[in-house]
Specification:
Length: 87
């Protein structure tokens, strides 16, 4: 949805912006869940009906996804410094 005061958008060229929106504090389930909740609650990340999305996020994603995400983070985690390489 474009706001009323937004400048006109010139279509034709497509770009991809890759940015780091954060990282969990550790690889444990609760830290991963906290990170996912913050990240996936951002309206700029998920452009869906907020009420509908919060139901899906809290009932399904935040109960099942942290385990899989924690496993992936454990593979790349910098154990010597105890930090994420994305930090």
């Amino acid at each position: 949805m474009i706001e009323k005061n937004h400048p006109p958008i010139k279509y034709g060229n497509t770009g991809v912006l890759i940015i780091n929106l954060g990282t969990p504090d550790s690889t444990n389930w609760f830290d991963i869940r906290k990170y996912l909740k913050e990240f996936l609650s951002d309206k700029r990340v998920i452009e869906a009906n907020p009420l509908f999305w919060q139901i899906i996020l809290n009932l399904f994603i935040l109960n099942f996804r942290p385990s899989k995400t924690a496993k992936a983070y454990k593979e790349i985690w910098m154990k010597d410094e105890n930090i994420s390489p994305l930090l």
